[in-house]
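Subject: two folds for Thursday's group meeting

Dear M.,

Sorry for the delay on this. The cluster queue was jammed most of the week, so I only got both jobs back this morning. I'm pasting them in the order they finished. Each block is the input sequence followed by the predicted structure tokens. Could you check whether the formatting survives your parser before we put anything on slides? The first protein is the one we discussed after the seminar.
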Amino acid sequence: MKVIKFYADWCGPCKTYAPVFDKVVTELNVEHENINVDKDTTGLAAKYKVRSIPLTVFINEDGTSTKEVGMLSEEKLKQLIK
């Protein structure tokens, strides 16, 4: 699984969510990426149709993905990754 977090520097909830996201992906040793929607050069924000942030996208091994909008608790994020 790969997890992508979309955020912006000016987004208050994004700043609150960042340490939770970083802690969980590090603890679970999951492949991850942080993408600033204001500076996205990858095209992933458009691909995943990011309209609200923070947005977490979970990409499964088979290429399917799910999205969760908003700040996720540590427990919820762990549950979605597992």
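Second protein, same layout:
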Amino acid sequence: MKSKLVPILCCLLITSVFTACKKTVDLPELPNNRITEYKVPVSDGTISGVIDESDKTITVYLPFYYQLDVIDPQITVSSGAKLNTEAAPVDVMSETTTYTVTGNNNSTSTYKLKIEIQQLGPLVIVEPSTATTTTGWAIGSKTISIQGNFNTTDPTKIKVFLVGSDLVEHALIVSGQTSTVTPVILATGKTYTLSNIQIPQNLADADYKVRVKVLRLNGETTRPIKLVFGRPVIDYKVITAKQGETFTISTSGEVFNNFQELSIMVGGQKTLLPIVSYTRTEATIRIPESIPVGTYTPTVLFQGWSASTLNWPINVTAK
């Protein structure tokens, strides 16, 4: 009896197994509020962003040599879904860009954009000062240069700061119009010289470290430079003023300091025009009523510097 039951039970078991194998298990539907593709056009093709659904991030690895200030992404979303905002250009230094996608069932998903700029580091700055000599830079000077392995010829991508004992950053003025970057070959290798940057006119005469930032790289000198009062520069200006009136002169470069006198020659005699007031960037001068009508060439004197004759006229008219 037992021997007959065994084959019957085996047949029932095999039938049950085959029946179970025929059943299909439905996979959960993928949410339709996803970003499925994120592409960044570049000069030689496109860069694809890495989309991580686990932490809802999009990471773009951007080589520095593309020299991009912004990226203009092309974004693809799930069928039937839409971006809540337009895919606008993004500053490559942005750390706050997000994208929200709404599915056709009104569910939402938000992704954070991460831009990883692939640069050659570390950033090394050629020290302006030496162990025995501290370099002096004139307050307001427009002709400051700094060297380092910047790996860019775009001056606007190089940010230069002076950092004092209070650790506050003071940005130097880098102009896309006048500042230049020139690659040079030194004994230590290829180096870039950033020229024609300006010291702000309001900084104190003190010691500062030089800090440079190129995209996400930072570098700082180990030795300080010293800001000093250089020979003041007066901007060209044709002056026309009446007897007894005042006029102003100004500087967009090296600042006024210890302004001693402004004079003209009248009848072969040096004659002072009184300095009513002055700041670092502007001076108010008065023309005495006794000065005869005419055109004069002024001479200025600042303490610590020899007198210099200016190349612009003062036209005195009748009161």
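Two things I noticed about the second structure. Residues 35-118 form a domain with the Immunoglobulin-like fold (CATH 2.60.40.2340). DSSP finds one helix and 29 strands in the chain.

Cheers,
T.
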